[in-house]
Amino acid sequence: MKRIFFSLLFAVCAIASPAAAQNMSLFDHASSPLYHRIKDFKFKWPFKAIPLWNKKTERFICVNPVTKRESHNSVNIQKLVRTKKGNCANLSSAQLMGIPLYHARLIAANLESADLTNANFAMSDLRNANFIKATSLGGTLFNGANLSGTALNSVSFENPKMIKTDLDDADMTESILSGADFSQALLNKAKLVSSVIEGARFNGAAMDKADLTGADAKKNPQTGEATDFSAAKMQNARFDGANLSGANFSGSDLSQASFEDANLGEANFSDANLEGANLSAQNLSWTHFDRADLRGAKITAPLTQATMTGAVYDSKTVLPFNDATAQELGMIKKQ
Asked: Is 273 exposed, middle or buried (0-12, 13-18, 19+ CB in 10 A)?
């Protein structure tokens, strides 16, 4: 009887909210542990929200399994630290200074406007979490955490550590991330539009189709360190209108990348793969292209004091000078 009663209750809820029922299923793409939690769900008061997969947005969202309404759960921070169970937790505006949340499960948690100074999220599961307008005065650790699909818009983090962090599809639009360490991180399709990443480190990162349009990636004015993209994989990445003066792209894969109207003064592209790249930048003065692969690339700005020794080009390469000048600069033409 009990099982029949709650089956009817679910049916009534589904009828009451057809839009929600259309966009998601209680069993749809939930992770294996979540699937069994829902399948063997035991009703307790209060009914807590759980993260469910929304097919339409391809994101985890927090839904009450009875009402099917989006909601988050109020939590006791100390209990959250002790149990490390924080899926759908409401931590909006929370003071998390120095809180050890490593290995925590915080799928789709709400951390909007939270203070994360010295907080430790290393190896935590933060998929689709909301960090919009969160702040940190330093010491925040995300090393090895899963932040794929996370909203990090308009955050202000000072020197955050994001080494080997999964940030695929993360949105960091208009965020301040000066001095951030993204070494070997996953940033495929990530958005860093109009972000401030002065002196940040992206060396060895995977950034296919990442969008850095309008990003401020010049040298850090406080430390003098250049933004480091060395050995990163950035096929089809966009840097249009970005300030990349002095940035280090040595050994990186930038095939089919776009730098239209970008400032590339004093940037280093030595040994980089720029095959098919759009280098119609506004400034290429003192830029280094030594041993770079420029086959099929497009360069229209004057290469004032640029170094091109050993750079490879072909008949499809667009250069602001003729073959004779290219050979004088030590470039190598290949068919």
From this structure: buried
Query: How many structural domains comprise the chain?
Result: 1
Residue 236 lies in a domain: no
Q: Is the pLDDT of residue 119 over 90?
A: yes
Report how far apart the first and last C-alpha atoms of the chain are (Å, whole number): 78
In a domain, 42, yes or no: yes
Domain that holds residue 13: 2-63
Task: Examine residue 217 and state whether it is found in any structural domain, yes or no.
Answer: no
Q: What is the mean pLDDT of residues 270-287?
A: 97
Give pTM, 2 decimals.
0.85
- Decide: residue 315, CB within 10 A, 0-12 exposed, 13-18 middle, 19+ buried: exposed
**Residue 49 included in any domain:** yes
Q: What is the pLDDT of residues 94-103, one digit of tens each?
A: 999 999 999 9
Tokens of 279: 């280098």
